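Assemble and predict.
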Amino acid sequence: MRVHVANHPLIAHKLTYLRDKRTDSPTFRRLAEELVTLLAYEATREVRVEPFEIETPVAPTTGIKLSSPKPLVVPILRAGLGMLEGMVRLLPSAEVGFLGMMRDEETLQAITYANRLPDDLSGRQCYVLDPMLATGGTLAMSLKYLVERGADDITAVTLLSAPEGIKALEAEMDGMHVPITLVTGAIDDHLNEKGYIVPGLGDAGDRLYGVV
Ligand SMILES: O=P(O)(O)OC[C@H]1O[C@H](OP(=O)(O)OP(=O)(O)O)[C@H](O)[C@@H]1O
Ligand SMILES: O=c1cc[nH]c(=O)[nH]1
Ligand SMILES: [Mg+2]
């Protein structure tokens, strides 16, 4: 698994306000969207393209366009929804599939409660969106679904990641024979005893949408 930490002062600046507990939901949603657009630039560096002939007002030339099949963007509900708009703004022709997952806060095991993905993902590049990679259980389960359905190139985009979760995800995806890339805004210090990222930003879903 390739891990890319997007090292940019604007990303660090926006993450700081996202982390601040005084930041309200509307501001949090706007910052998450802005951050994804910056991360998406990095995450799509190897998006598949093909040559395409056009004519400028001056001369014929060869450009590029996104290859078919189009990339699939998969936000992990709930919190991943807060990253969807920022991503599809950069990739407007992408298709979108949904996975609903939640962590059992006692066992920290991921549970899937919704799954709306194309059956056949053969040859598809997939971009999985989830703001938080904590223990790695949620992303590991999501990426395995995609690999089982035939995805052959997967990039996970997170705002924050824990070192423990990156290690666990690497171990889970080892031997999958599918290129996996993680693009993240920052790698934080550690996980606490409740599985929260430290310093982190708290519960991303609650901060985006309120406590359920
Ligand atoms: O790496 P893990 O330890 O699996 O934890 C990360 C998951 O936890 C959060 O979701 P949560 O279960 O809180 O659901 P929500 O998005 O509905 O709030 C977060 O958005 C990730 O999906
Ligand atoms: O710190 C964390 C860990 C898991 N899920 C979150 O939303 N935040
Ligand atoms: Mg949550």
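The CA atoms of residues 7 and 185 lie 7 Å apart.
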